[in-house]
Design brief:
This protein is an alpha/beta fold. It folds into three domains: 139 residues, Rossmann fold (3-Layer(aba) Sandwich), CATH 3.40.50.11750; 151 residues, HypD, alpha/beta domain 2 (Rossmann fold, 3-Layer(aba) Sandwich); 44 residues, no CATH class. Helix content is 40%, strand content 17%. It has 17 helices and eleven strands. The strands form three sheets. A five-stranded parallel β-sheet has the order 2-1-7-8-9. It is globular. It starts with a helix and ends with a helix.
Length: 364
């Protein structure tokens, strides 16, 4: 497609990098930009974009990986459910190797627990129909991008009259977390590269309060090298002009108002709740729980289990990495006992994690 050719053009990338050097030359203070999308984090590392930036611009990663921000307590809950042989757990692949307090889903599967990787929540609905004598539990982890698909699966299960399909929800919404980061004076976030996938659902309008309340320029940008560099150039221009607003670089997929049908599904099935984020604590109104009408699908309420006291892996700095306080290589475990084959923290496990990106593509 034409846009792929354009945004992968080396000449365009070089031109944007040169423009960034020119237009940031008179910055008095270094500009601190945060990307809050795990796919952006991987793209930035894969394309080596930090090495193309002028010294006045520092790009840091935020809590853009849904698996990484999922608290240990959620993993412990999933492991407790997996221990019951009548339960069939379904999950996206990234969650398998994330350590809980004492184990992981992969380790429990090796010990006999029925834990299956699926491509979508609808696959879990199909398994519930196939195995009426089992309780099929989908591990609902993700931001506004995946939550509508889970909502659609719940409506499908309702339509089919399934009484053995459940969801253990840990869905989170991004604007509230970005607001918490914006209010932290120690982080000093000057600009945001807003998450592109999330923005296709919630739209650019969702970030307007951030720009207005905190005076932080925001740009929704795509995933190719030229996308990211153009997004950085747009926020630099806002900063230089003394402006703070939301711009859409990723117009080929994201709009101002987002995907109305997906937003309707979210509103129909879920309602806001307080939610715990790894490394950030409980953020008011940043989670999604099932509405009362759909309570019968809520695994947390319908399938009570005894839960251990959760504990973070000793020495793990995932929380500091997720909030941009340190780089992955600043964690004493990075590259030593914490590697992709022997992960200690979630940021090394997930395909969108900052530590995994640094390990795979090298430190920039």
């Amino acid at each position: 497609m034409r846009f792929q050719e354009e945004f992968c053009d080396p000449g365009l990338v070089q031109g944007l990098a040169a423009a960034l050097y020119r237009e940031s030359a008179d910055l008095i203070e270094p500009l601190r930009l945060m990307e809050v999308c795990g796919t952006h984090t991987m793209a930035i590392a894969r394309f080596g974009l930090k090495s193309l930036l002028p010294p006045q611009i520092r790009l840091v990663s935020g809590p853009g990986c849904p698996v990484c921000v999922t608290p240990v307590g959620y993993l412990d809950h999933a492991l407790a459910l997996a221990a019951d042989p009548i339960n069939l757990l379904t999950t996206f692949g990234d969650l398998l190797r994330v350590p809980g307090s004492v184990s992981s889903l992969m380790e429990q599967r090796a010990c006999g627990a029925d834990v299956r990787v699926v491509w979508s929540a609808l696959d879990a609905v199909a398994l519930a129909a196939q195995y009426p004598d089992r309780r099929v539990i989908f591990l609902g982890v993700g931001f506004e991008t995946t939550a509508p698909t889970v909502a659609a699966a719940i409506l499908q299960a309702e339509q089919q009259g399934l009484d053995n399909f459940f969801v253990l929800t840990s869905h989170k919404t991004m604007p509230q977390a970005m607001a918490l980061l914006s209010a932290d004076p120690e982080l000093r976030i000057d600009c945001y590269l807003c998450p592109a996938h999330v923005s296709t659902v919630i739209g650019g309008r969702a970030y307007q309060p951030l720009a207005e309340q905190y005076g932080i320029p925001c740009v929704v940008t795509g995933f190719e090298a030229a996308d990211v560099l153009q997004g950085i150039l747009l926020v630099v221009r806002q900063q230089q002009a003394g402006e703070a607003r939301v711009e859409l670089q990723y117009r080929r997929a994201a709009s101002w108002n987002g995907n109305q049908r997906a937003r309707q599904l979210l509103e129909q099935v879920f309602e806001p709740r307080d939610a715990e984020w790894r490394g950030m604590g409980v953020i008011a109104g940043s989670g999604l729980q099932l509405r009362e009408r759909f309570a019968r699908f809520d695994a947390a309420h319908q399938l009570p289990v005894s839960l251990p006291v959760s504990r973070e892996p000793e020495g793990c700095c995932c929380g500091q990495v997720l909030t941009g306080r340190i780089e992955p290589q600043d964690c004493p475990l990075f590259g030593t006992i914490c590697q992709p084959e022997t992960p200690v923290g979630a940021c090394m496990v997930s395909g969108e994690g900052s530590c995994a990106a640094a390990w795979r593509y090298g430190i920039q």
